[in-house]
Amino acid sequence: MNELDLVERIRKMAGKAAPPLVAGIGDDCAIYRPRAGEDLLFTTDQMIEGIHFLSSTKASAVGERALARSLSDIAAMGGKPRFCLVTLALPDNLSGAWARSFFQGLMRLARKTGTALAGGDLAHDDQVHLDVMVCGSVAKGKALRRDGARIGDAIYVSGRLGRPWESKIQPRLQLGQSLIGRATACMDLSDGLSIDLHRMCSASGVAADLYRVPIFNGASLERALHGGEDYELLFTLPARAKPLAGTFLIGHMIDGPAGEIRLDAELVKPLGYSHF
Amino acid sequence: MNELDLVERIRKMAGKAAPPLVAGIGDDCAIYRPRAGEDLLFTTDQMIEGIHFLSSTKASAVGERALARSLSDIAAMGGKPRFCLVTLALPDNLSGAWARSFFQGLMRLARKTGTALAGGDLAHDDQVHLDVMVCGSVAKGKALRRDGARIGDAIYVSGRLGRPWESKIQPRLQLGQSLIGRATACMDLSDGLSIDLHRMCSASGVAADLYRVPIFNGASLERALHGGEDYELLFTLPARAKPLAGTFLIGHMIDGPAGEIRLDAELVKPLGYSHF
To answer: Of these four, A73, B170, B210, B251, which has the most CB atoms within 10 Å of its CB?
Structure first.
């Protein structure tokens, strides 16, 4: 399939631009018309064949996961997804059925979450390499940040940790939106609880005291603490706030060296995934 | 250099977020606060080692070019650059000096054009693969589109065509902004005049009659017509508009099969660069 055919096919799958998107695929840029009183959120995440997924992974699963990872960042700030741009490099022999299935998987999640496919870039490469940028919106000044946790806050995660790679990512969009005005800090768990909580604590200038880590069925504590790609939300609520149904209280923020984490009084080193 | 060190270095180079950017590098998403009455423009462009640049290309030149290509799309819509996200995959041995020089080159052009570096994503790969998303802004409803050319309009390009790859890209931001309210259509020349003009004509439902193609010193007519990566603006003005100093009148839009191009009455096939 040549590039024009593939672009035409993607354009059909994306459908016509609808407000707040003024123009989608087909010109030099996509055009978005902001609404009064909204802040816009931007995040981008890449996936590389052989690193973030296997050659044998179903194309539709790659497409869905690629979008889900970026949506998880939008969820972490309490945002509502608006649109995405998809950059895709792929070998010639994948530009037909593989590409179609990739975009089908991506569009399924896009439609479910109200994310318009607004544009992107295509190129040829020996292996699949892709990058999904998502724009979300949130009421002005209300985005959930990671630097607002205070001493005494209760620490929560939105699900059990250490899940196997193959399990579907469910970006916690509704939970994120429901935390606006309630959570003092929030972020998503993409690199592992130990490193991500360390980042939240460092940014907030507090230490963390954990007494429980909810473990995914079959996973080890090691994996739950240090494994990446959980895509659950990590958030803090004021000490007196009511616990949130369906989420797990794992500890509290305490006065201590910024970024330090203890589990049952034992020091936990931030060992999560490093990209180099 | 490990990832945290590299991120810290990039964060320093990017500097503190300033309005309209509320938050840059360091949280799950960057936050942008739109101003009343602005439309936002979004474009993304990838560059792959061995395809879009050579391993021997200076890292600073790669960084500058990566940003320049996306800025050219913003220029083509008449936009003012606001911020960029940079996605970068690179081999371990390039994560030190190479990465620093890459971001230095990119930041030089970013500062010159008022483009904040707001975030991105890093990964490890065997070869350099990067993607630069740029957001620009334009007065509501004023973006220059490619589908507005009418029969009788004069066709212009902003510079001589067929330039060698090594020459610097100068995104035509000022020209693009000055065309707002004047040009009936505008786009940038990234794939070659023949295919890009064909796209403009097809989108606008007109044909083009060319009588002149300004050729870069030393290039062939063939290259000027079909070579890619010129990054000049292609635009149309109403028939009676005054010619624009420093730009080249190359022909007129005529009544004819949508997308058809003739040069001195000879049919020109749209042969420009295809990405597959």
So the answer is: A73
CATH code assigned at B232: 3.90.650.10
Evaluate whether B214 touches B160 at the Cβ level (below 8 Å): yes
Residues from chain B contacting residue A143 (CB–CB below 8 Å): 22-23, 29, 31
- Per the structure, how many domains does chain B have? 2
Do B121 and B162 lie in a common domain? no
Q: How far apart are CA B101 and CA B111, in angstroms?
A: 15
**Is ipTM > 0.90 here?**
yes
Q: Do A27 and B3 touch (CB under 8 A)?
A: no
Q: Model pTM?
A: 0.96
User: Which residues partner with B43 through β-bridges?
Assistant: B134
Tell me whether residues A187 and B136 touch, CB distance under 8 A. no
Give pLDDT tens digits for B113-131.
999 999 999 999 999 999 9
